Amino acid sequence: MLRSLACGLLLALFAAPALAEQIVVESPWIRAAPPSARMLAGYAVLHNRGEAERALVGASSTRFGLVEIHETVEVDGIARMREVPRLSIPAGESTSLEPGGRHLMLMRPTSVPAEGEQVEIVLRFDDGSEQPVAFEVRREAVGSDEGHDHHHDH
User: Fold this and answer.
1) For a tag site, which of 36, 59, 79, 154 has the least CB within 10 Å?
2) Sorted alphabetically, which Pfam families does this protein's record hold (predicted)?
């Protein structure tokens, strides 16, 4: 009986990290902002390599007082942001956090990170697992159109 209990405990300890590794974060970045900015936005692509749907349910960072998942929606012809409590990532698929759509809203920075800096954001998933990710601060997404005006996007 004790042996079964010990085996079950070991399986539980090893299962949580395995679940966290099912989500692969690609191209994490934060849009560079002026030193006076009170809000920034974080973007990435989340790949679910697992066999079950997963969801991003929150995030945090020591560099920001508050991090929320937001989406941009159009209401009466005006783009507005609203908080999203969970962001589903279907099994075997990807979900994007991107300018003009869903993104991490990074509020109340302790100091605005400089272009080229790496900022750690801890992503929290529906199974209770957490995944620290280094987000690079830059002006545009890799491969973006330099001439496109993103000032209205977060």
Assistant:
1) 36
2) PCuAC
